[in-house]
Amino acid sequence: MKRLHVRLLSILLIFCFSETSHAETQHLVLVTGTQQLGHAILSQREVRKIFLGQGLHKFDYTITALINNTDALLYQVFLQKVVYMSENAYEQHLLGRVFRMGGTRPPTYMNISSLVNALREKPGTITYMWEKTAQETPGIIIIGKL
Question: Using H for helix, E for strand and C for coil, what is the string for 122-146?
Answer without folding.
Answer: CCCEEEEEEHHHHHHCCCCEEEEEC
